[in-house]
Known about the structure:
Blueprint: H1 13-18, E1 40-41, E2 44-45, E3 52-53, H2 71-89, E4 104-108, E5 129-132, E6 137-141, H3 145-153, H4 155-173, H5 183-202, E7 209-210, H6 215-226, H7 234-240, H8 247-259, H9 262-266, H10 270-277, H11 301-315, E8 322-324, E9 339-342, E10 347-350, H12 352-359, H13 373-392, H14 399-415, H15 429-439, H16 455-466, H17 470-476
Amino acid sequence: MTIPLRPLLGCVVAAMMLLTGCSTTVLHGHAVSMLYDPSRAGGLPAKDGYSGQRAGAPDPTHTAANSDGGPADRLALLAVDDLEDFWSHNWNGALTGTFSPISGLVSYDSNSTTNPDVCGGGLTDMANAFYCFSNDTMAWDRGSFIPGAAKYFGNMGVVGIMAHEFGHAVQAKAHLVEKGTPVLVKEQQADCFAGVYLHWVAADKSPRFSLSTGDGLNHVLAGAIYIRDPLMTQEEALAAGDAHGSALDRISAFQIGFSGNADQCAAINMDEIKKRQGDLPQFLSYDAYGAPANGDSPIDENLLTKLMASLNQIFTPANPPQLSLEPGTCPDAKATSPASYCPATNTIGIDMPALEDVGTPRSESQGVLLQGDNTALSMVTSRYVLALQHERGAPLQSTTTALRTACLTGVAQSKMSEPGSPLMLSAGDTDEAISGLLTSGLVASDVDGVTALAGFTRILAYRAGLQGDADQCYQRFS
């Protein structure tokens, strides 16, 4: 029900800066569905541009108890105004119950010792934003949480947080959840409702905010990755009992809302979530000593050999590409570090130092949104599936190719979660892949490294592969 902002927030600035580096786009070919069009994001035109409060936006109409009247509260209150505006006009026909404004709004400073109690608890040292079901109250920390989120995810990152918390109010007023509803269902629905609202903003319908579908939406998605659940064993997860979702869970729920409607959000339940998760590993396993295994392996020749064997087993190509641990030169394609595919020689060239660096586990404390061994392995896999497309005679140079590549990479990774693969996917691997899709984009790029502008669409294509098969990738991205 809450979105905790960890103290290490300030360390993600380097990762956030990377989000502006993936905007190269060349439009060729076509996608079958507008949803999978490389020039669009959630059905809207993909474009960079200003994201934030509109010039001349009206002043907030609400007030918050305990407010200091500063910019953090003004932004939060303006978001509440916008959310009420949206849901009051988009309720009938989609949701049961009756819409009504939230009863109470409370601002507090988590650095202060003189905060009011909200929802039966104190707020000192609670850098957070939350909705309280018992008394229909929404509260946020103006001292650390809102300013920190604005600094590293932009003002629209803050609006996205408020939209998620308002999503819990939507649940309550539409009678979608009750006390015994699993926390994961509540959180996934709220992520989805946030997506529905932010699509309206991105469609230029909000009188208060603007959101670009390129870099602006990328930063909102980065925030969703950042607030993912930590990796746990199944026993630890059962003991905690309050799973909010992996990065893949949270982004997929958000994308359902952004690309769909409130009806689809209301339909999210444990059966739908489990179907969406498929057979992908959700929990950490144990090592030989009985301790939770971290799931990451060192990037070396042995691991890459196992990866190639797995991919050959999954796809059984007539002419499997060869692996070279040297980048090499290629007469008919550009180099794409740390992994390249050369059609002329049917070779995947690896820059080992660069690949090792990308595959070394890092997190926000080290200035990276999220990375691990599958950040690197998904990149190599993407070059492998270019060889499959080459064998099939599909074009290798277009943004449609880029999304087809992401989709086929998703297919490969889904198959690597099945028993019998020489290299098995572990918990957290898909989160590493989607983080790379957002900050680098190589997994969703063509043979020359050209990618689709919107991180939203790159991740959507990868997710389509996780939940589909190779034939569907070729049909969707033809």
